[in-house]
Amino acid sequence: MKRTKHTNRTIQELPQPVMHQHRGEIQDYHSVIQDIPLGLSVSTRQTVVKQLNQVLADTMTLRDLYKKSHWQVSGATFYSLHLLFDKHYTEQIELIDIIAERIQVLGGISVAMAPDVAEMTNIKRPPQGREEAPVQISRLLEAHEIIVRETRTIAKRASELSDDGSNDMLISNVLRTNELQVWFLYEHLVNTPLVIAK
Questions:
Q1: CATH number at residue 174
Q2: 10, β-bridge pairs
């Protein structure tokens, strides 16, 4: 048996990784953990988790739409839009983590994989090719509107179910971030003269 320089243990005695481990799920995607001391019923948590997963899927789609726009933007406003799209992309990543963690806090399972997100999202899939900057912005604004509307609806429902934590997260984080991003985008579509005022 071969011995190493720094120990008298043989190579065969060293710990080895256990590879290729596969077992079934430990929690079904559509379930919530039963006994969590949050003061919210299982049915309330199931309702909110399902709706939060919809917001999560749409937010993940919007994130990817921002990255596509960041990579493919062109034209006279390239530099400013390239930076803006990337900033908004980063902010959407932060929202994704906040939403997903809230789902986990409620005992649910967050949607995570791209194929599942693609099946769930309410946001229309863009073409693979490059679009003009005003079209990119319009597409992003339409995606934001979907998220803003569903966020308001779900926040109201969470409040009705006394899930103040989800309501606060949706209003303070998701809604306010999306509203601010909408403002930054739609101002780029205002047709104003660049050099000489009308």
A1: 1.20.1260.10
A2: 3
Q: Find the domain containing 149 and state its range.
A: 39-188
Which residues pair with residue 3 across a beta bridge? 10
Distance CA 156, CA 67 (A): 30
The answer to whether position 171 is within a domain reads yes
Q: What is the pLDDT of residues 140-173, one digit of tens each?
A: 999 999 999 999 999 999 999 999 999 999 999 9
Between helices 133-160 and 176-186, what is the axis angle to 10°? 160
pTM: 0.90
The single residue listed with the structure tokens 């493919």 is: 72
In order, the DSSP letters of 39-71 are: S--HHHHHHHHHHHHHHHHHHHHHHHHHHHHHH
